[in-house]
Amino acid sequence: MTNTDTWTVAGRTFTSRLIVGTGKYKDFEQNAAALVASGAEIITVAVRRVNVSDPNAPMLTDFIDPKKYTYLPNTAGCFTAEDAIRTLRLAREAGGWDLVKLEVLGEAKTLYPDMRKTLRATEVLANEGFLPMVYCVDDPIAAKQLEEAGAVAVMPLGAPIGSGLGIQNRVTIRLIVEGANVPVLVDAGVGTASDAAVGMELGCDGILMNTAIAEAKDPVRMARAMQLAVEGGREAYLAGRMGRRMYADPSSPLAGLI
Amino acid sequence: MTQTITLIALTLNGEPHRIAEGSSVADLVRDIGLNPKKVAVERNLEIVPRSTLTAVMLADGDILEIVHFVGGG
């Protein structure tokens, strides 16, 4: 298979359409092994206070080389635009990188995004030179508004973060894909390989996931499964699926029957 | 020759912290055993650019946040 099928976000071109998170793993070794198995080129990372009492604790950057992988800092845990913006300003200083993942959460129970705050934060960040890839609801109008506000990618949820329920509304994800002029990535909700394939078959540019790999019984093997599923779904989308029929259509010729 | 070291009080990542007067932000980062190249620092809600860590002096009452990248989704 050739590697000519690439995607581009904010002028940066990638081959892998799978973005993986780095949370919830048993340890850094397992995380690094799963990352290799996934074939991902971009990883999401969180920004948190350093452990002042134990400065020698192992750090993520010791296990996953920021020069080899694109670190995409997130704003997980931020419930206000101000906190999200502050977090990403720090992230830019820590990593020197303007491509970021913005999420402004509305409530802890569903971790649904607060779209009003998300839109405002997107505008502020874009004006400060950030390139925000934005976690959002699966709403085609909201996705357009984010794009107009400066989002370099829109990332609708397929289902709540960490739920593993799979893509709940294929229609709205497809509507977002059809209306978007920036990459669309399903962010959140994937539970297993077929969920990732569905997202890609809908025409998404990529899939972002964390828990589906980290909480699998064998995360390294699931990471590989996700790589294959994303590639399979993408190939199927490019191939163009057959039409749907209500009734059977035999695959063997009717002529020449004995 | 003896010199009395005056300590100033800071709030570091939400906890009280003391350091010698005349210390820079870089001194603080090294003081707690961290590599300034691996962290980002905010002082009184403003980013301290990495290139200025040695130049920015700490003052009594400063509120500092020192962060780094951790695993996340």
Structural write-up:
- The complex is a heterodimer of chains A (258) and B (73).
- A five-stranded parallel beta sheet of chain A has the order 5-4-3-10-9.
- Chain A is α/β, with parallel strands linked by helices and 258 residues long.
- The longest helix of chain A has 21 residues.
- Chain A is globular.
- In chain A, strand 1 and strand 2 form a beta hairpin.
- Helices cover 38% and strands 16% of the residues of chain A.
- Chain B has 73 residues and is mainly β.
- Chain B is built from one helix and five strands; from the N terminus they run E-E-H-E-E-E.
- In chain B, strand 3 and strand 4 form a beta hairpin.
- The radius of gyration of chain B is 13 Å and the shape is globular.
- At the A-B interface, strand 4 and helix 3 of A face strand 3 and strand 5 of B.
Q: What is the topology?
A:
The complex is a heterodimer of chains A (258) and B (73).
Chain A: E1 7-9, E2 12-14, E3 18-20, H1 28-38, E4 42-49, H2 60-63, E5 70-73, H3 81-95, E6 99-102, H4 115-127, E7 131-136, H5 140-149, E8 153-156, H6 170-179, E9 185-187, H7 193-201, E10 206-209, H8 211-214, H9 219-239
Parallel strand pairs in A: 3-4, 3-10, 4-5, 6-7, 7-8, 9-10
Antiparallel strand pairs in A: 1-2
Helix pairs in contact in A: 1-9, 3-4, 4-5, 5-6, 7-9
Chain B: E1 7-12, E2 15-20, H1 25-31, E3 40-43, E4 46-48, E5 63-71
Parallel strand pairs in B: 1-5
Antiparallel strand pairs in B: 1-2, 3-4, 3-5
The strand count of chain A comes to 10
Question: Structural class of the helices, strands and pairings of chain A?
Answer: alpha/beta
Gap between N and C termini of chain B: 55 Å
Helices of chain B, by number, come to 1
**Beta-strand content bin of chain A:** 15-25%
Chain oligomer state: heterodimer
Largest interface: A-B, 38 and 27 residues
Overall radius of gyration of chain A = 19 Å
Spatial arrangement of strands, main beta sheet of chain B:
2-1-5-3-4
Rg of chain B, Å, rounded: 13 Å
| Tally of separate helices of chain A | 9
The total count of strands of chain B amounts to 5
On the 0 to 100 scale, the average pLDDT of chain B is 92
